[in-house]
Every structure is written in C-alpha cells, then in structure tokens.
Amino acid sequence: MTIRRDRTNMSPEHIRIAELAKEDRERKFSSIAHFLTVEALQEAFESLRKDASAGVDRVSYAEYAGEVRGNLERLHDRLKQGQYRAQPLRRIYIPKEDGRQRPISIPSLEDKIVQKAAVSLLNAIYEQDFLDCSYGFRPGRGPQDALDEVGRIICRRPISTILEADISGYFDAIVRSLLIEMIEKRVCDGTLLRLIGKWINVGVIEDGRLLVSETGTGQGQVISPLLANIYLHYVLDEWFETVVKPD
C-alpha cells in the first residue's frame, strides 16, 4: 500500500494514521490530539519561517527560541489542561497585481506552532483522501507540478478546450458550519475540533478594533490552506470526479 506523502518526513505515529486512513476511507479518527506532543510542537516550531511577521503578541521567532523548550512545555501544558486560547489575528494588506489589496491575517507565534503541528497530523489523514488532480497547498506539490501535468495531458489527448477559473475571495467565503461537518466525516476528536473552531472564529485586529466575521478562515493562518483544501475536496473535486466526468 502506497502512503500518499513522503514517509521520510513523517513520524511513526503519523505513518500509522495514514495507513489506517488509506485502508478505510470511512474511518473516523476520534483520539489523535494526544499526538500534539512537546516534540511535535518542537518540530512545528523549527519548520516555521524565522523572518515571518509577528502577530498581535509581537513575539518573534528569535525571542521565542531563547527559551524554546520551556516555552513549548508550557504551551503543551495549556493544551492538555484545556487552557490554550487562540489570539486574534493581526490584519495587514499586500498589493495584488490588479491594484487591489489582499487582506492577510497573521496569527500569534504560539498559534502558528500549534496549527503547524495540527496540519502535520491532519495531513496524514487527508493526503490519503485528496485526489491526484489537486495540487494547491499540498506537501511535495506545487504550481509547476500542476503545469507539468496539464502539459502531459495536452500532449497525449485530443484537447480542444482548456477552462481556467478562479474562485473570488475563496478563503473569506468558506461556510464554517459546513467546513466543520466536512471535517467530522474523518475527524471526530473533540479536542482537535475545538482547536479548529477557535482558529476559524478568533477574529482579527484592524486599526485597533476587533472584527469578527461569520464566514471564512483567515488567509495567512497556517491551518487555512488545509481547511480550504478539505472544503474544496468535498464541494468541487469529488463533485467533478463523480458527477461531471462520468457524463
């Protein structure tokens, strides 16, 4: 059985979760949050960009690294005791090619750490579910891989039409209640679901004000690309594969 993710970058625990997910596409994982260990948090921290912008906590990578083991042990204790609280996101804007501004939401450093560890854990499951035609924000895949695949298809098949489409404001338009329902098809671990709920509902700080929306998952959060892929998998990829293509 081939596990769809590079095993050299996976812990033995993640490999076992991936194997179970691959064996049974209907399996629900109810007890996996305990894999968010101090070691998992350490690995997540070390994988973060050292020069990334700070969130509302104003804590830099270098500052946190000064006492990293103690900081991570205290963070882990808060996670275990249910005392972890996600902090609001810091909103900034970056220019787009068309002259408009793209809103980016920056999490605090500890939120980035926990989200990164959660992404590694959840990827073990969802990399077994996502379709081969999906390339965005996936481990070991990127835009060039997608272009290469399009090129191979064009060269091998009689293609007369190529459709290019873009989902406007996708991250901001995700319906959170539906997203949670989709996640629950595979994950029913209450601790993980509560963490995800905190991250998508946390709100943003802009011009000194806390703004809370009813939809979306903040673009800029470490967890958001995976959540966006889960949502897209169910609302578009599976529909296209099972309904559109057979016609």
Helix segment tally: 10
Could you spell the SSE succession in H and E letters? Answer: HHHHEEHHHHHEEH
Write out the strand line-up for the largest beta sheet, numbering strands in chain order: 2-1-3-4
Envelope shape: globular
Report the end-to-end length measured between terminal Cα atoms. 31 Å
Task: Explain this structure.
- With 247 residues, the chain is α+β, with helices and mostly antiparallel strands.
- It has helices at 12-23, 38-47, 61-65, 68-81, 109-126, 143-156, 170-173, 176-183, 190-200, 224-244; strands spanning 89-95, 101-106, 204-206, 209-211.
- It has a four-stranded mixed sheet, with no helix packed on it.
- A hairpin with a 2-residue loop joins strand 3 (204-206) and strand 4 (209-211).
- 29% of the residues are buried.
Keywords:
247 residues; alpha+beta; 4-stranded mixed sheet; 10 helices; globular
Sum this structure up briefly:
The protein is α+β, with helices and mostly antiparallel strands and 247 residues long. 47% of the residues lie in helices and 8% in strands.
Annotate the secondary structure layout:
Layout: H1 12-23, H2 38-47, H3 61-65, H4 68-81, E1 89-95, E2 101-106, H5 109-126, H6 143-156, H7 170-173, H8 176-183, H9 190-200, E3 204-206, E4 209-211, H10 224-244
Parallel strand pairs: 1-3
Antiparallel strand pairs: 1-2, 3-4
Helix pairs in contact: 1-5, 2-5, 8-10
